[in-house]
Batch of 4 targets.
Target 1
Amino acid sequence: MSDSINKKSVVGSSVFYPVTRLNMGLRYVALWAVMMLANFPVIVFAQGECPGIHVNIPNISNSDGAIACALFESSEGFPTEFLHSATNIMFIKIQDTQARCYFLDIPPGTYALAIIHDENMDGKLNTNFIGVPTEGYGFSSGAKASMSAPSFEDASFSYDGGNVGLSIRLSY
């Protein structure tokens, strides 16, 4: 009985022996091929950024507080009443004196952005006793504040529903 078991194990091991003796280089080529084919659908079907308004805020004076990005679709409350009137609001943590806001799933239309560096995180743009801002601020379309905040029309831009990349520098 033990002789038949030994014969079966010898036959079984001789069948698998050539498979385990593959050249190591051939094994690596096979492994590489499997890995590439496994990632093929990801590579072929990968898409770019999601459609939306992508805002980059470079050169922030410091990393204290947060950046408030407020997207308005009308002049109502622009830009001072962003907590009450903005269509979308994001508070973003500052990393290495930069921040990025992403507004996704926004329908086509006319919009304006107001950006505030809320250093003390009180939810508003702080000013001194004569009304001059003491925190950073910026607006879309290169709109500048002179004696007062710019109008919605000055800061507005058209959005067609695709990808829009904006860069807004803050004024201090």
Target 2
Amino acid sequence: MLVGNKVDKEGERVVTKKEGINFAREYGCLFIECSAKTRVNVQQCFEELVLKILDTPSLLAEGSKGLKKNIFKQKPPQADAAATSGCC
């Protein structure tokens, strides 16, 4: 499940709703936007996730045994911070 947070800060949006939907669709994820501050769609996030788990028997059967796939690109290894930092 992909959750877009802080929808109460529409003017500061970095990712459009359409981009979120497309990303979720590409990886086969549910997508919902919410705001923890105003509580918009927070309850629905949890309800949708539980319903999806209950509707997908393989998710129940696999539990935490399933392979976890990191869909986000890994950052390249950073050089030693002490060697590149101007600080002590």
Target 3
Amino acid sequence: MSNTKSIFPKNFLWGGSTAANQLEGAYLEDGRGLSVADALPGGKDRFKIVASPDFNFELDESKYVYPNHKGIDHYHRYKEDIALFAKMGFKVYRLSIAWSRIFPNGDETTPNEAGLAFYDNIFDECLKYGIEPVVTISHYEMPLHLAKEYGGWGNRKLVDFYERYAKVVLERYHTKVKYWMTFNEINSALHFPVMSQGLVMKTGAGSKQTIYQGLHHQFLASSKAVKIAHDLNPDLEVGCMIIYATTYAYDSNPINHLKALEYNQAFNFYCADVQAKGEYPHYAKRIWKEENVTLDIHDGDLELLKAYPVDYVGFSYYMSTVVTTDEDVMAKSEGNLLSGVSNPFLEASEWGWQIDPLGLRLALNELYGRYQKPLFIVENGLGAKDVLDENNFVEDDYRIDYLRSHIEAMGEAIGDGVDLMGYTPWGCIDLVSASTGEMSKRYGFIYVDLDDNIEGSGDRYEKKSFNWYKKVIETNGSDLA
């Protein structure tokens, strides 16, 4: 692999990434309402529990633990955390606003001022250090009331609720925040709609009709947010955000290559095609036919999508996947909750996620070639069971190796001609895992002394990767040693 000297542009956006529901805690403070994430129990079985036909977002603290309720107490310790980000030299910090801090139930007409003031403080603290916020408007934290009383994104009424919410936060913060994203991993609804669309089995989590209709509603909401932003300031940049898993056919059998094409179209490209190109792709009707989906598209919907596409494509990249039509070969993989065949050419993380840096170079070329819009890697990282030694230090060379190989792949993609605007590795500070609800699945450059029950001192400690990433940023990616 060639070195990355002078490859990254001078204005490259180095930073880190988090989500409000996974680190803030303070889940009932200052008028905040419950979110969907607050109702998800912690532990490896959390998605089995929510997939039950009887699950209806009811909290049962006698039976389950809810790590999201406390998170890492970023709500009270944000100044300490942002100071650590500044010490690493972050140019940007990708975070999300908790919708239920602004509209506790989601359907109010007047926002919660205490919630708005909290994010004023967050953004001011970032700007004090010269860190630009990159804000996800909705990141797996829909107000629980909207899921329980309205049935989540399957209900078109949510378009109006989201538009009101987006208008409030964009008007409030547009002078402090230039970079926005409308939904986190919007295509995740096809695999785990509970977080992305607020759906459980009783409200359509098992129905492709409901999920695809929900996506249509989210596309409309996204376009409305783009319009609001550009009306406020044409220089604001609003992106979409998808999960991307580079997809390989199991072998050279053409039928498996067709399977890979179909997987790419349905999962990797469908949502971004609509949001980045402003229209449903050519293959959409075939998907709808095969999934027995009939979309309820109102007059003016398609015109709205066309008029207000996103400015850039943000995506998460953790792993690649392998597909085949052979059901006997197909095996369940843990990779970002996606199914796939284990790839014998790749190593995997402790959670079974296939580590594939070359797949990131392929992803960047595929996405840029398809959309010709700037790309932003807003999540990437290695979840691991870090161990704090007697000196309160973590020797996480495995994380450094992972990140180094992916940054090298980014440099090669830029050399290929890809317009890559930034990189914000996931969980730059340890936080509650979305997939398992655990603290023990750690991604951060900063260790947080809390266990899976959110017990411990909560103290922050710099890992070995902290100073390594600081050097990467200082040298603009030219020194990865």
Target 4
Amino acid sequence: MANLTQTNSIKALSTDRTEAHFSDWWELTKPRLSLMSVATAVLGYFAAGPALDLSLFFSLCLGTTLAAFGCGVLNQWWERDVDAKMERTADRAIAAGRISPTAGFIYGIALALTGVVLLAYKVNITAALLTAATVVLYILAYTPLKRVTPWATEIGAIPGALPPLIGWVAAGAGFSSMGWILFAILFAWQLPHFMAISWMCRRDYEEGGFKMLSVSDATGRQVAIKALAWTIVLCLISLAPLREPQFGWLLLVVSLVLGYAHLKPAIQFVRDPGNVAHARKLFIATLLYLPAYLGALVVDRFFI
């Protein structure tokens, strides 16, 4: 194990590039993951059905993007020593030494603070406070707790579920029940999503010293059962918006179809947890579920 870790570190430091390029600064922001969070905030905004204010909408998009980018950078700054030990992350710019920890920290703080301040001035203080809470919980709770307890996954699902609520309150809908339903849907969605990832990447997590359930569960059965349990919860919560008069048959049909597509690989994972292919199918199902469900929520709200 020590030799593998050393080899990964050497590989990262012996890359063809020893100085940071633009792509390094860009990848530090974890753009794919960050922009998914922004997309859920935008869909939360539209789900509230506001009269479109282009200035406010643009500020919501930019503010949440900057804050999400800041989270991505600060996460890599905090975990630079762990990233250097894992093959799939050893070439990240801070872990590989192309960007200094100090520069990475300043970059992340600047992005996050700019995003929160922009939301406070151009959207509303509630959206800004929720965004600040997202950053703080993600960096100061979820990130360090991954090395301490498997429950870090549930804790990390809290900041991960806040973006649609941020979009909802940005639209002026306040803390109404539908906003919290969106929060609950995102919370439940993350658990099977991350259970699948953690089983596929369990060797990396073990090398990095993360206290993930997949590391302590040698058979994968506990991981699979938790994934199935939260899939069932997700399917049930996804029907909750139907009690609101603005949602109807389209959301019902999409919820049932997506629920089946999500449940099938989750059940297969429980039946044969040792087969990584089932975890991969569940992971793909989660990727398809979220945009399809939230998209149906908006379409049903405005066009049906």
